[in-house]
Amino acid sequence: MDVTDLINRIEIAETTIHCLKVKIIKIGRESIRWTKTDFYDEAERVEENRDMPGIYDSDKFQEAVELMIQKHNAEIGITWKTVRCYLDEHCLKDK
Hints:
The protein contains five helices and no strands. It folds into two domains: 1-28, no CATH class; 32-95, no CATH class. It starts with a helix and ends in a 5-residue tail after the last helix. The chain is mainly α.
């Protein structure tokens, strides 16, 4: 069992798990991680900019971020615009 398996078995806050996983990444190996926290943050900005509070269903954020990562184009990458598209396509409350 490696450290990641052990962390996944322990019931602790998701942000704590994320921080621990980041700390065990080998030195010199870097990655960019998108999480549902990014969806929460961007949803808040979009709702404020559009003056439309509460338009997103946060229960859909995890599924949307996983879909976004799975279907992304590696030639283009993922940007905040990509996150906004997935929020609008998969997380609006009326959909």
